[in-house]
Amino acid sequence: MTKIRAAITGVGGYVPDYILTNQELETMVETNDEWITTRTGIKERRILKGEGKGTSHMAAEAVKELLKKTKTDPKDVDLIIVATVTPDMPFPSTANLVADMIGATNSFSYDISAACSGFLFALATGSKFIESGTHKKVIVIGGDKMSSIVNYKDRATCIIFGDGCGAVLLEPTTEEVGVMDSVLKSDGSGAQFLKMPAGGSRMPATHASVEANLHYAQQEGATVFKFAVTNMADVSAEIMQRNNLSGDDVKWLVAHQANKRIIDATANRMGLTEDKVMMNIEKYGNTTAGTLPLLLWDYEKQLKKGDNLIFAAFGGGFTWGSIYLKWAYNSN
Ligand SMILES: CC(C)(COP(=O)(O)OP(=O)(O)OC[C@H]1O[C@@H](n2cnc3c(N)ncnc32)[C@H](O)[C@@H]1OP(=O)(O)O)[C@@H](O)C(=O)NCCC(=O)NCCS
What we know:
This protein has eleven helices and 13 strands. The chain has helices spanning 22-26, 33-40, 55-69, 94-102, 118-131, 155-158, 207-211, 221-242, 260-270, 281-284, 291-299, and strands spanning 5-14, 18-21, 44-47, 79-83, 108-112, 138-145, 163-173, 178-186, 194-195, 218-219, 252-255, 308-315, 319-326. It is an alpha/beta fold. A hairpin with a 3-residue loop joins β12 (308-315) and β13. Residues 31, 35, 39-40, 116, 155-156, 159-160, 221-222, 224-225, 228, 258-259, 262, 286, 314-316 line the site of coenzyme A.
């Protein structure tokens, strides 16, 4: 029987208008542009302003663009998956809210929580519904409103994160394109190094939890850095090895944008030159689940049918992984 693969057939994205620069951060915490630029590669990030606007707002905007570009009727969408750690609310899922906002009345929908690896986990999950032949149009969204859980008095986290969202459409193909392989991992013993302690069932919101800043993301930066460098490089090398890919075979590295030094180390290990590494960290910072689809959004015009892409991510949980995907279309 011919194998059905899941191909990305379109990309949409949304970043808010407000730009938070390193210079503005200098007025908020004890930091400076030079430190942020050399230690992370970030120059600015986007912030979603406006009462009542959550991650679903950005996701719906990204999907509206995606539907327009791919000439897709929202009623034909079978499944919507949103990867996020900043859902509009604990329930209903952000995916459900997005489905309603875009008029996807025939789809089912749910969220995936895997922090910075969220989009990879969602892409792998969505692909399975296509590959099994049960679903024809799956929208995979990655997005976070990190500004809603970042403490702008904590210089260890507030310099890194920003808001943004991207979305892709997955459709079946029998050609040799689409998702070829995935390696996905998690290790809950890393939870202590990157987390938002309060607001869940273990520590519901109280006056004391708010006063203790426990509803903000907390990170032990240096520890996370160490794990991220090793694991992202390892998993990318593993997926290349088991698919017999050399650095020359890979056209693009689509790596999570948390720190330019982590991305450089991964590219180095894979034997890739700088021109093969997608990079938008300087203008968006780390948008958590939004990062990978926003890279595709920014680079879509440069992608050609048959290009080998290696996705790599590392994030809270710990979660990490890599996906090997062959690009399915020329965008112009
Ligand atoms: C957060 C991160 C940028 C910090 O960089 P770092 O080089 O590890 O910095 P450290 O935390 O070791 O701190 C080094 C020094 O800079 C200082 N510093 C920390 N943040 C600073 C800031 N924003 N501005 C200026 N100085 C700062 C520290 O106080 C420390 O000073 P000291 O040496 O006098 O004690 C980096 O650890 C990182 O990127 N971590 C991984 C993030 C990640 O991948 N997350 C996973 C996905 S979310």
